[in-house]
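2024-03-11 09:14:02 DEBUG pipeline.ingest accepted 1 chain
2024-03-11 09:14:02 DEBUG pipeline.ingest length=149
2024-03-11 09:14:03 DEBUG pipeline.predict start
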Amino acid sequence: MKALATALALTACLTAHAQEAPAYDAAKAQAWGANDNGLRPYTLVLLKTGPKRMPDGPARDEMFKGHFANMQRLAREGLLVYAGPLDGVENLRGLFIFATTDVELARKAVSTDPVIIEGEMVAELHRHFGSAALMGVNEVHTRLVKPKP
């Protein structure tokens, strides 16, 4: 039985390996700033719980509405390539990935967010090196959002 499982796993690996690799897209690699390994630099922002939690209510709702609107604006401008919430463990609330190596530019962009302005969250910025494919997330994501009636 163990030999059969090993043979099946080997067959699956060989079949996957035998498939042709996708064609290299030089134009997209250049447009997205990819190096020869398909990677590029970014600025990663970790959003952490801040010193001033805004009480529940209309003002808090407006703050978060502004937070989402700010993210959409930064994405439309091509600066924010990825954002999402985290689980809150160790006060980590969310993350941003900016298409810039200029940490000060990213810091300025983050400072426009209502959750930062109000002290609900604080930002920790880091240089990050990852897949240039992140540059296509916003375009693809819009195709996955179901239209509202």
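2024-03-11 09:14:41 DEBUG pipeline.report The mean pLDDT is 89.
2024-03-11 09:14:41 DEBUG pipeline.predict end
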